[in-house]
Structures are given as structure tokens and as C-alpha cells.
Write a structure and sequence with these properties.
alpha/beta, D-Maltodextrin-Binding Protein, domain 2, 4 domains, eight-stranded mixed β-sheet, two-stranded parallel sheet, 17 helices, elongated, binds 2-acetamido-2-deoxy-beta-D-glucopyranose, Iontro_rcpt_C, glycoprotein, transmembrane, Insect_Ionotropic_Sensory_Rcpt
Length: about 475
């Protein structure tokens, strides 16, 4: 293979420049991923491994294209990228060195690495190549991993027998628009010379120079509220904490933003994945299913999940007569009434009452309940001491109970008592028939469903996805 490509081994030539650049950027926790297209010889790889400083180790990956780049090559590439990404996830910070002279290989790498999320901004990418700059220029600008990520391209120029490496970085935003800037040169004699102005790995997003950045968002108070729908004549007006955060960021980084219209939360995320929009400024909980799709970098807000229920109805009116006293008190009063009625009747039976007004059961009931309602006793002559004591005791009893009842009744009518409500998730899943969540809740439903906790499992079973929070609340009120 080396013979086919002449007697030059690009990686062998690059060992000096690569080690010089790495020495410049490596931190005590850096590891290096070396990715080649299979044209580098084992001795060249060994030479680089000897010379580069990578305190946390070097991973070497080869993705060898077979008869041009077809689907099977792409699949193999994806596997290599998947392994390399695993290494990146296990490392503190990573420098990826990509070595190839084959534009088709580089294009495929760019697409597969983007889909496989090999790079995040903290990952530095060094592309080592000898492809002519004119050929590279257009394609670097059109590939996200080279234009927008933290990438530097090293191009080998042979000046006679002398090597010279030029290093470039693509700046997507500058006063003159997107451009490729020269950041450094390296020659064996002079070593690494970093040009002033940009630094070796320029920061690309400190200043957008007034560019328009697409964002996606849907109403999600209090984070994002729409005050005025966008129309042909106006970009719309928004509010909310995340909107204010975006506005402050836009001012600091000198960009304006446009809200790309979307219908669902899935679209909100998809537009960002497609890079039609660069960000969705609404906070996004970390869920295992989302880790399959997104890299999470920084937590700026802790959000809790809360539930709301329809306010329960008050008890029907007739029941509020019963409410003021507890069950035990009512039972006690009932028992006392029965006892007192029996006692009165037996007094009647012993003939102590005046014969003119025989005390029937009806009359006795009247006497007993009359006192509760604040009526005085009928003018019955109670001759015996026993009868007077009995009636006296009843008077006191009915006064106390009657006053207590009237007081409690007034209080309970003024301050109605609502039935107790669920305050925790465990209580909620016991009483709720149905729990609704807007469209983004689908991921929560499946997440809760996978939990070992019976409470979360039950929550997942009860959850239904509806179009919006308001729709869910409307359904809760209707179902009450
Ligand atoms: C490669 O994959 C694409 C989409 O997955 C398919 O349309 C195409 O036919 C495949 N090509 C070959 C040569 O298998
Ligand atoms: C913001 O961008 C505009 C347009 O390119 C430019 O004129 C201005 O100087 C920039 N502001 C800052 C603070 O860099
Ligand atoms: C931003 O959105 C507009 C319209 O929604 C679209 O035409 C444009 O291509 C988008 N910009 C980028 C960089 O994708």
C-alpha cells in the first residue's frame, strides 16, 4: 500500500508537527485518539506514539475503506467512531488526530463522526492531510465537524525536500463572513510558530458579528411564553426565563435570533439535530433515552416535576349539617337521647306526671328536641325529685351540645373543609384514574415505565399524552 502512494508515509512525516501541536494543547488529563485510513504504517504509528505527550493514553483506530466508500465501509466507519466515542466519554478531555490524504475518506469521516457524536466542543480535532488547500477550502466549510467544531487542519507543503506544515481553522463568523484563517506553521528547523490574533485553536463563537441564529421553541411557561405570535410583518414577541437567558446571550455574543416555526416538541428537537436551528433555548431534562440522542454538557437549572389536580367539590349541602360534629359525638348524642327518652317514659309509667297531660313518646320527643332548638320546656309539672334532676341534667346537656353544634356549624359553613388531597406521588397514584402530560411527556412515560419502583411504574401506566398542559387540565376538570 505504501508503494502505491509513493515512498511517503504522511503520518511518519507528521510525527514532528503532531507532537509539537499536542505539546502545546495537552493538559495533564488529555488522552489522544489517533484515527487513520489504513495508509499509515505500523512503524509510523509507533513513532508518533513514542513522541506525543498524552498523559492519559492514546487510542489508535483504523478505518480502512474498501473499493471506494460504500455502505459496508460506512457501517465499519460507524463502528470505529462508536468505539472512539466510548473512549472520549471515558476521558476528561480528548484530542482527535485524523490522518488521511483521501478527500472521500475525510468526507465520510465528517458525516459519520457528526452522526456518531464523536466530537463535542471540548474535543480538539487535528486533521493531518496533504490535500491541496484549494481542494480543501470548499469542503471544510460545508462539513459541520470541520467548520463548526474545534478543528484545525494541517496541510503538508513540500518545499523541495523540506517539509512545511500550514495550519488553518475555519471561522464560521467573522466581520468578513465565514473564512479559513491561517493559525500556525511548522517547519523542522523553526518548530511551531503560532500566528498572533487567533491562537492555535481559535474560539469560534465569542462574536457572531450580527449573524442570525435559528432557534426552536414552543410555549412552556414560565420558561418560554409567546406574547405575540410571529407574523409576516413581525418576528413575534416572547417572554420567560429561558427567553431572557437567550436574549442576554445573544446580546453578549452579538447575534440576533429567529424562531423557526414548529408544531411539536419532537420537531423542536429534530430541527436542532438537522442543524436548521442551532439551539432550542428551553431547558431539557437529562433522561437516559435522551442520552442516546444528545450530549449534555452543562446544567444551568434544576427543574422539578409537579402535578396539579382539579379542585375537589364541596360535600353536598345536607351533609354540611352533619359535618360540624364528629361521628363519635353524634353516636354519643343519639345514645343519650335514647336513654333519656326511656327514662322519661318510665317516669310517666310510674304515674308521677300530672294526669292531665300524659307524656306520650311524641311529647317526650318534642321536649327533648325542643331544647336542642332553643325552645323552653312545656309547662309540665315535674313533681318528683328524680324527674327534676333528670330534666335538669338534660337541660345542661342540650345547652352544651346545642351551643357547640351551632358554633361548629357556623364555622364550617364559613370555612368549608375540602377533602384531603394527595401531596406525594405515592398518594397520587393511589387516587388518580388518569394523569396527563404534554407531548414531551412520552419520554418521561417510558422512563418511568422502566423503573423498579412500583410507584413510578404505576405512574407510567396512568400517564396519557395530550396536546398541551391546558388540555390536560381541561380534561381533569371535566372528569372530576
Ligand atoms: C446504501 O444504503 C442506502 C440507504 O440505507 C440504500 O438506499 C442504498 O441502496 C445502499 N447501497 C448499497 C450499494 O447497498
Ligand atoms: C457586532 O456585529 C456587528 C456586525 O458585524 C459589528 O459591526 C459590531 O462591531 C459587533 N459588535 C461587537 C461588540 O463586536
Ligand atoms: C434558518 O431558518 C430559515 C427559515 O426557517 C431557513 O431558510 C434557513 O436555511 C435556516 N438557517 C440555517 C442555517 O439552516
Amino acid at each position: 500500500m505504501e508503494a502505491e502512494r509513493g515512498d511517503r508515509d504522511l503520518l511518519e512525516d507528521a510525527s514532528g508537527v503532531v507532537s509539537a501541536v499536542l505539546a502545546e494543547v495537552v493538559q495533564p488529563t488529555t488522552s489522544v485518539i489517533l484515527l487513520t485510513d489504513g495508509t499509515s504504517s505500523a512503524s509510523a504509528i509507533a513513532k508518533v506514539l513514542r513522541r506525543v505527550a498524552a498523559p492519559y493514553g492514546v487510542g489508535v483506530f483504523q478505518a480502512v475503506p474498501e473499493n471506494g466508500i460504500g455502505n459496508s465501509t460506512r457501517d465499519r466507519f460507524s463502528e470505529v467512531i462508536r468505539q472512539a466515542r466510548k473512549e472520549r466519554l471515558m476521558s476528561w478531555n480528548v484530542c482527535v488526530v485524523l490522518v488521511s490524504e483521501d478527500p472521500a475518506f475525510l468526507t465520510t469521516f465528517a458525516d459519520v463522526a457528526l452522526r456518531g457524536r464523536l466530537l463535542v466542543w471540548a474535543t480538539k480535532l487535528l486533521l493531518v492531510t496533504s490535500v491541496a488547500l484549494q481542494e480543501l477550502r470548499a469542503f471544510l466549510g460545508s462539513r459541520w465537524v470541520f467548520s463548526m467544531m474545534n478543528a484545525v487542519v494541517m496541510v503538508l507543503q513540500m518545499e523541495g525536500l523540506l517539509q512545511k506544515w500550514d495550519m488553518y481553522s475555519h471561522l464560521p463568523y467573522s466581520p468578513a463572513g465565514p473564512q479559513l484563517v491561517s493559525v500556525a506553521t511548522w517547519t523542522p528547523a523553526e518548530g511551531l510558530r503560532i500566528k498572533s490574533g487567533h491562537g492555535l485553536f481559535p474560539e469560534k463563537f465569542w462574536n457572531f458579528y450580527g449573524a442570525t441564529v435559528n432557534v426552536t421553541a414552543l410555549p412552556f411557561p414560565p420558561y418560554w411564553s409567546v406574547l405575540e405570535e410571529p407574523s409576516a410583518s413581525s418576528p413575534g414577541r416572547y417572554s420567560g426565563t429561558d427567553f431572557l437567558l437567550l436574549e442576554a446571550t445573544a446580546e453578549a455574543l452579538n447575534f440576533t435570533f429567529r424562531v423557526v416555526p414548529t408544531e411539536t416538541w419532537t420537531e423542536v428537537a429534530d430541527r436542532v439535530v438537522e442543524r436548521v436551528a442551532f439551539l432550542s433555548p428551553i431547558f431539557h431534562n437529562v433522561l437516559p433515552a435522551r442520552l442516546e440522542r444528545y450530549e449534555f454538557s452543562f446544567v444551568y437549572e434544576f427543574g422539578s416535576l409537579d402535578f396539579s389536580r382539579a379542585k375537589p367539590d364541596l360535600q353536598p349541602q345536607w351533609q354540611s349539617l352533619y359535618y360540624p360534629l364528629s361521628h363519635a359525638v353524634w353516636l354519643g348524642v343519639l345514645a343519650t337521647v335514647v336513654v333519656i327518652l326511656r327514662a322519661m317514659r318510665s317516669r310517666d309509667a310510674t304515674g308521677h306526671a300530672p294526669p292531665t297531660s300524659p307524656l306520650t313518646l311524641g311529647k317526650a320527643l318534642q321536649e327533648v328536641f325542643g331544647l336542642f332548638l332553643g325552645q323552653n320546656l312545656s309547662r309540665v309539672f315535674y313533681s318528683s325529685v328524680r324527674a327534676r334532676v333528670l330534666v335538669g341534667a338534660w337541660l345542661v346537656f342540650s345547652l352544651v351540645v346545642g351551643t357547640a353544634y351551632r358554633g361548629n356549624l357556623t364555622a364550617s359553613l364559613t370555612l368549608p373543609v375540602y377533602p384531603s388531597r394527595p401531596e406525594t406521588l405515592a398518594q397520587l397514584v393511589l387516587v388518580a384514574d388518569r394523569i396527563t402530560m404534554p407531548s414531551y411527556g412520552a419520554e418521561f412515560k417510558s422512563f418511568f415505565g422502566k423503573s423498579d419502583s412500583p410507584v413510578f411504574k404505576r405512574l407510567s401506566e396512568l400517564m396519557h399524552i395530550v396536546s398541551s398542559v391546558e388540555e390536560g387540565q381541561r380534561q381533569a376538570i371535566l372528569a372530576k
